[in-house]
């Protein structure tokens, strides 16, 4: 099977689409697409298009329950399946045109190299947003911000334990992750395109980032397989409107079932996860 993404541009403003999905679908759930062929149901294993078919089935089963999808590029590139990633994003845009797609690539480089990464994400793969590493400073982010309708989601307080090695360093009286939150929200977000990554494993830091960043969207990995607490995450990160979060779950949803009904099993877990999130979305009067 050969894969061809549509050649026409997909007209979507990431922030507008995200806000609409939060409210129209009553969902803060982002489903991460991290396809591992070793964990696929038996009937898909060995098929040349298995990655596309697996992810497509998950997408079609859960699209009405999510505010976004987040394919992780490494899972596709490691299998030499970038063509299947391109086709998957094209399918989401075609079949679920109001659902934004975040390409999780965590790019970070300067100058002309950053420009090429931006072309890769936004022109080749036609993602609606991209995760980016802010370590090299503002000029390394500007090539992504040049795409006015695209989202730029910057690492701030990551969910892994080792994130504290650098992110908790004192920089002029504030922790490094606090400096990132302040810089992004106050200086780098002039076009209203930016969001921040804050791990669900650190609800205290989620609350601090929310305090520093106002209503900026927060992409929150770490629930499900990584053990982050949904209630603590939502209470720490929700805005006054009960939104502002993209709470990501990947493996717990993708591999909820191992048989031919794997997509239906994924839908059941996604529905339960969305409900568990929504229980805590709106502050008590």
From TrEMBL:
List of catalytic residues: 106
GO biological process, one term: 'de novo' pyrimidine nucleobase biosynthetic process
E.C. numbers: 4.1.1.23
PANTHER family: OROTIDINE 5'-PHOSPHATE DECARBOXYLASE (PTHR43375:SF1)
Protein name (record): Orotidine 5'-phosphate decarboxylase
Record-level Gene Ontology MF annotations: orotidine-5'-phosphate decarboxylase activity
Catalyzed chemical reaction(s): orotidine 5'-phosphate + H(+) = UMP + CO2
Family from the record: Belongs to the OMP decarboxylase family. Type 2 subfamily.
Listed SUPFAM superfamilies: Ribulose-phoshate binding barrel
Keywords: Decarboxylase, Lyase, Pyrimidine biosynthesis
Biological classification of the source: Bacteria, Pseudomonadati, Pseudomonadota, Betaproteobacteria, Candidatus Accumulibacter
Domain Orotidine 5'-phosphate decarboxylase: 28-266
Xref: Pfam families: OMPdecase
Signal peptide: none
Matching NCBIfam families: pyrF_sub2
Functional pathway: Pyrimidine metabolism; UMP biosynthesis via de novo pathway; UMP from orotate: step 2/2
């Amino acid at each position: 099977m050969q894969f061809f993404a549509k050649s026409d541009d997909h007209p979507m403003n990431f922030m507008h689409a995200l806000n609409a999905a939060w409210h129209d679908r009553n969902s803060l759930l982002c489903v991460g697409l991290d396809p591992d062929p070793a964990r696929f149901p038996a009937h898909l294993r060995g098929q040349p298009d298995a990655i596309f078919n697996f992810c497509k089935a998950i997408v079609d089963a859960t699209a009405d329950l999510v505010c976004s999808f987040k394919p992780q590029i490494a899972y596709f590139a490691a299998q030499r399946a970038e063509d299947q990633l391109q086709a998957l994003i094209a399918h989401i845009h075609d079949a679920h045109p109001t659902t934004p797609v975040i390409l999780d690539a965590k790019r970070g480089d300067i100058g002309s190299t950053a420009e090429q990464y931006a072309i890769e994400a936004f022109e080749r793969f036609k993602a609606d947003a991209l995760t980016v590493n802010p370590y090299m400073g503002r000029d390394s982010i500007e090539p992504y911000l040049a795409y006015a309708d695209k989202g730029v989601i910057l690492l701030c307080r990551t969910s892994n334990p080792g994130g504290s090695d650098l992110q908790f360093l004192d920089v002029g009286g504030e922790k490094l992750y606090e400096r990132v939150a302040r810089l992004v929200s106050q200086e780098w977000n002039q076009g209203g395109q930016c969001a921040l990554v804050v791990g669900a494993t650190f609800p205290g830091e989620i609350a601090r980032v929310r305090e520093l960043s106002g209503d900026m969207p927060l992409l929150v990995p770490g629930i499900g397989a990584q053990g982050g607490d949904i209630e603590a995450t939502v209470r720490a990160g929700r805005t006054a409107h009960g939104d502002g979060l993209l709470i990501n779950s990947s493996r717990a949803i993708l591999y909820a079932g191992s048989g031919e009904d794997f997509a239906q099993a994924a839908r059941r877990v996604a529905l339960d996860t969305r409900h568990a999130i929504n229980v805590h979305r709106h502050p008590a009067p």
